[in-house]
Amino acid sequence: MGSLHPITLQPSVRALVLDGDRLIVFRRTPPGRPVYWSVPGGHVEPADATFEHALHREMLEELGAVVRSVTPLTTLRCLRPEGVKPQHVYGCRLVSLDAALRCGPEFDDPARGHYETVRLPLEPAAVEGLDLVPPELAAYLVEHIARLPELIGP
């Protein structure tokens, strides 16, 4: 990767989903690898008309969730060996969640491991000790988690 003009990789969307006064995250247990944590989201697909459309699609695929008050929060530039990965981070509020509706490829392939949905308190200490990926999002959350209710629309 050239230092002056790094390659921009396919963008992703990430959702900081509030369920009342809790943040929804995944505890990922991949076979043969250490446990790590993430928030719902994924690649923006060619069929996605907008980043927000991609976010709603990902919420249904990964959580079986419908969300509202989708609010752009930040765009992270995540440095990877192959280039820069833009991560468009949105805050939103949970309307409904039905795990039976999850339909993403991560749930079709048992070799991808287990995705446990966990709700964390909106406190920096709740995320500081987690191996949350991407690390740029972990840093954003430590700084902003307590303010999410005021940053996200009603």
UniProtKB/TrEMBL annotation:
- Quote the PROSITE patterns the UniProt record gives: NUDIX
By its UniProt entry, which SUPFAM superfamilies does this protein fall under? Nudix (SSF55811)
Pfam families this protein is in?
NUDIX
Record-stated family? Belongs to the Nudix hydrolase family.
- Name its species: Sinosporangium album
Domain (Nudix hydrolase) ranges? 8-138
Q: Which PANTHER family match?
A: ADP-RIBOSE PYROPHOSPHATASE, DIHYDRONEOPTERIN TRIPHOSPHATE DIPHOSPHATASE
Fetch the InterPro entries from UniProt.
NUDIX_hydrolase-like_dom_sf, NUDIX_hydrolase_dom
The molecule here is called ADP-ribose pyrophosphatase YjhB, NUDIX family
